[in-house]
Write a structure and sequence with these properties.
By secondary structure, this protein is an alpha+beta fold. The protein has helices at about 35-45, 85-90, 100-105, 115-120, 130-135, and strands at about 10-15, 70, 110-115, 150-160. The strands form 2 sheets. The chain has a two-stranded parallel ribbon.
C-alpha cells in the first residue's frame, strides 16, 4: 500500500543546547550503594543485551565494544534532587529518602546499552527523548553529524531549557 508523499525524505541537523543543574551529590566511589551497581553488572553482564538488540535500529549497535549499564530513570548524580512524591507516583514504595540511593543503584533503574545507544550520536545521553525512543522503530533515524542521505537541510533546531 502506498501513501501520498508531500515531503520527500530528508536529513536535518538537530542541536540541543541547554544547561543541566546537578544537585550536590557524593562521588560514585564514596557511594555506599555503588557496590550494588557493581554486583548487578557482574551478575547480569554474561547474558546482557543492548536494549536495542531486537529493534529496527539494532544494526547500529556497537557490539564489538563492552555493553554499558545505564541508569534509565534517575542518574546517580541526580538522586539528591528527586521530588520523592513524584517518584512515588510512578514507582510506588520508593518515597523513603534513605532508600532512594539503593533504588537508583538497582535493576529497576538499569538498562544495558551498547556504546552507540548509550553515548553515541543516537544514544540516550545525546538524542532527544522522542528521537531516542523512535529509534527503536525507525531504522537509521539518527546518524553521526556529517553522515546523511544526501538530502541535507540547513535547518537547525535549538532547544534551550
Amino acid at each position: 500500500m502506498s501513501t501520498p508523499v508531500d515531503v520527500a525524505a530528508h536529513a536535518q541537523t538537530i542541536a540541543h543546547n541547554y544547561v543541566v543543574h546537578y544537585p550536590e551529590h557524593p562521588a560514585r566511589t564514596s557511594d555506599p550503594n555503588y557496590v550494588d551497581f557493581e554486583a548487578y553488572a557482574r551478575a547480569n553482564k554474561p547474558t546482557a543485551k543492548c536494549a536495542f538488540w531486537n529493534s529496527a535500529d539494532s544494526d547500529q549497535c556497537t557490539l564489538d565494544k563492552p555493553l554499558e549499564l545505564h541508569h534509565k530513570v534517575i542518574e546517580f548524580s541526580l538522586q539528591n534532587g528527586i521530588d520523592l512524591a513524584v517518584l512515588e507516583a510512578d514507582y510506588p514504595g520508593i518515597s523513603n529518602p534513605s532508600e532512594v540511593g539503593a533504588w537508583v543503584e538497582s535493576g529497576t533503574n538499569f538498562e544495558w546499552l551498547c556504546q552507540y545507544h548509550h553515548r553515541g550520536a543516537g544514544g540516550v545521553h545525546n538524542a532527544s527523548s522522542s528521537d531516542f525512543t523512535a529509534e527503536r522503530y525507525v531504522k537509521d533515524l539518527i546518524s553521526k553529524k556529517g553522515v546523511s542521505d544526501g538530502n541535507t537541510s540547513n535547518a537547525t533546531s535549538n532547544t534551550n531549557l
